[in-house]
Design goal:
Layout (H helix, E strand, L loop, with lengths): L1 E2 L9 E4 L7 H15 L3 H8 L4 H12 L3 E4 L1
Parallel strand pairs: 1-3, 2-3
Amino acid sequence: MIVNKSKKVASKLELNLSGPEGNAFVLIGIAQSWAKRLGLDSKAISADMMSGDYEHLLSVMEKHFGDHIIMYR
């Protein structure tokens, strides 16, 4: 879920894409951790994230972890 910073939703991991958490390598690391927690294929998700540009990486995060994270711009 990518939302405006003024709208906050509780009990989800919040990632500020404008700060250090928005670094692509940090996001891939977070995705690997969440994939393992959820029993998903972390290698396949990481490979998909790296197969495109930054917006593609964000869309893969949203696709797999949108129920668990909130990304702010």
